[in-house]
Design goal:
Oligomer: single chain
Number of domains: 2
Number of strands: 13
GO biological process, one term: glycine biosynthetic process, by transamination of glyoxylate
GO molecular function: alanine-glyoxylate transaminase activity; L-serine-pyruvate transaminase activity
Bound molecules: pyridoxal-5'-phosphate
Radius of gyration: 22 Å
Strand order of the largest sheet: 2-10-9-8-5-3-4
Distance between the termini: 59 Å
Keywords: Aminotransferase, Pyridoxal phosphate, Transferase
Cofactor: pyridoxal 5'-phosphate
Helix content: 40-55%
CATH topology of the largest domain: Aspartate Aminotransferase, domain 2
InterPro entries: Aminotrans_V_dom (IPR000192), Aminotrans_V_PyrdxlP_BS (IPR020578), PyrdxlP-dep_Trfase (IPR015424), PyrdxlP-dep_Trfase_major (IPR015421), PyrdxlP-dep_Trfase_small (IPR015422), SP_NH2Trfase/AEP_transaminase (IPR024169)
Largest sheet: 7 strands, mixed
Length: about 400
């Protein structure tokens, strides 16, 4: 008989911008027995999850459901289902995930225009609006919280401008949903993609999305073209532009999530349990209380880092609450610091991408990972690790500064 080692992942303190620690209630939910995907008990869990998603996205949209796959699958489902080849799409880019949106829009055959902001900053809404008036796109696609740079783009003015011009605004809120406010209806966002493994503290594997009737019409129009139902309405020479994905076709997925329950794929039963439990945790805590909690631990972390003499990266006026970027001091090997944090203290923080590689560390304070124990543990460990790497520090100041923030109460 062959033997393999027991699975025994080490307990970790995960302070990256995802995946983050999973709430034990979510892990327990995932261990329940499977239900068939058309079992009325299961379909009523699906309906409950849709309602919880509407509340989390702050929307009255009919459509709010998860796409099976990581967050990227939700982004791809929305873009491939709404954008037809040849559509004009504007992608304002201010970090790595903006480039991802550009790439996916390109693969949809769109005519894409981009505007770029220096990393560490976000757009003045007027800059985006001027680009809209210049390029006249059918869609604007952009990131709400850029985890690569730790910045948050204000969206309300852009949303209003898009609505006034009949442009659809598609937003990547993967890193922000459940951690900082995302006002789908209030900001006039037409389609929003969230993530599970960030502020919702659920393992990666589902992408919650929501979209409104205007977005739905785009997907359904292509469904009709595909089925040849457009008939006489089609112009001579019209190109048939069916949605170029089966798995990620929202017009089919929504039939599966509707009372029709038309079979599409096999639902990820255990992941749906996880999502429902994760959303239940969010709504029980309350969105507002949850945002206050994320701001509190951000403040404590930043106070600690600054007391330690660390410098933070990026424009502070648009800092993303749930990701704090720290400049690596000159002469310090950032990867060696990360290794020591993991090996000696069981803490994981993130490195960075592209132009920021080797220049900053990124610390996530998201969801279940966003708590006092983790922040204090990281600050103490970080200080000790930096001293071991030859950095001169005011010893003990970091934890004291964070404690002072905690003692001063829970106001943001
Ligand atoms: C993490 C992240 C993604 C990608 O999510 P996956 O689950 O890895 O597919 C997309 N956008 C942003 C802003 C992210 O932070």
């Amino acid at each position: 008989m062959r033997r393999f080692a027991d699975l025994s992942p080490s307990p970790r303190t995960i302070l990256t911008p995802g995946p983050v620690e999973v709430d034990p209630r979510v892990l327990r939910a995932m261990s329940h027995s499977i239900l068939g995907q058309f079992d009325p008990e299961f379909t009523s869990l699906m309906n409950e999850t849709m309602q919880m998603l509407r509340e989390t996205f702050v929307t009255a949209n009919v459509w709010a459901y998860p796409v099976d796959g990581t967050s990227r699958s939700g982004i791809e489902a929305v873009l491939v289902s709404l954008i037809s080849p040849g559509d004009r799409v504007l992608v304002p880019i201010y970090g790595r995930f903006g480039h991802l949106l550009h790439e996916i829009a390109d693969r949809c055959g769109a005519e894409v225009a981009t505007i770029e902001k220096e990393w560490g900053y976000v757009f003045d809404p007027e800059e985006v609006i001027a680009a809209i008036d210049d390029f006249r796109p059918a869609f604007v696609v952009m990131v709400h919280g850029e985890t690569s740079t730790g910045r948050a783009q204000p969206l309300a003015d852009i949303g209003r401008a898009c609505r006034e011009r009949g442009v659809l605004l598609i937003v990547d809120a993967v890193a922000t949903i459940g951690g900082v406010p995302v006002e789908t209806d209030g900001w006039m966002l037409d389609a929003v993609v969230g993530g599970t493994q960030k502020c919702l503290s659920i393992p990666a594997g589902m992408a919650p999305i929501t979209y409104n009737a205007a977005a739905e019409r785009k997907a359904l129009a292509r469904k009709r073209i595909e089925k040849g139902l457009l008939g006489a309405a089609a112009e001579p020479g019209d190109v048939l532009r069916p949605i170029r994905s089966n798995y990620l076709d929202l017009s089919q997925l929504q039939d599966y999530w509707s009372p029709l329950r038309l079979n599409h794929h096999t639902e990820m039963t255990s992941m749906l349990y996880a999502l429902r439990e994760g959303l239940r945790l969010v709504l029980e805590e309350g969105l507002e209380a949850r945002f206050v909690r994320h701001r509190l631990h951000e403040r404590a972390l930043m106070a600690g880092l600054e007391a330690m003499g660390m410098r933070l990266y990026g424009d502070p006026s648009c800092k993303l609450t749930v990701v704090t970027c720290v400049l690596i001091p000159d002469g310090v090997d950032g990867e060696s610091v990360r290794s020591m944090l993991l090996e000696a203290f069981g803490i994981e923080i993130a490195s960075s991408f592209g132009p920021l590689r080797g220049r900053i560390w990124r610390i996530g304070t998201m969801g279940y990972s966003c708590n006092r124990k983790n922040v204090l543990h990281l600050l103490g460990a970080f200080e000790a690790t930096l001293v071991r790497h030859g950095v001169t520090l005011p010893a003990g100041e970091a934890v004291q500064a964070a404690l002072t923030v905690y003692e001063s109460g829970e106001q943001p």
